[in-house]
Design brief:
The chain starts with a helix and ends with a helix. It has three helices and no strands. α1 packs across α3. About 75% of the residues lie in helices and about 0% in strands. The chain is mainly alpha-helical.
């Protein structure tokens, strides 16, 4: 099971990888976990849509 800090780190790395440069690590570090969760959900679903569009 992932600890809170590990989850935070993973979410930030995912957002940086999938966010197309929209966010910086410094910006993300200042956000709360609920704020990160919301952004992570958005970029995750966008990432899935991008992957699915490639395979169509």
């Amino acid at each position: 099971m992932m600890g809170r800090l590990e989850k935070r780190y993973c979410w930030i790395m995912d957002i940086l990888a999938w966010g197309h440069g929209k966010y910086t690590e410094e910006q993300l570090e200042k956000l709360t976990m609920p704020e990160l969760a919301e952004i992570h959900s958005q970029v995750y679903h966008q990432h899935l849509e991008e992957i699915q569009s490639i395979h169509l």
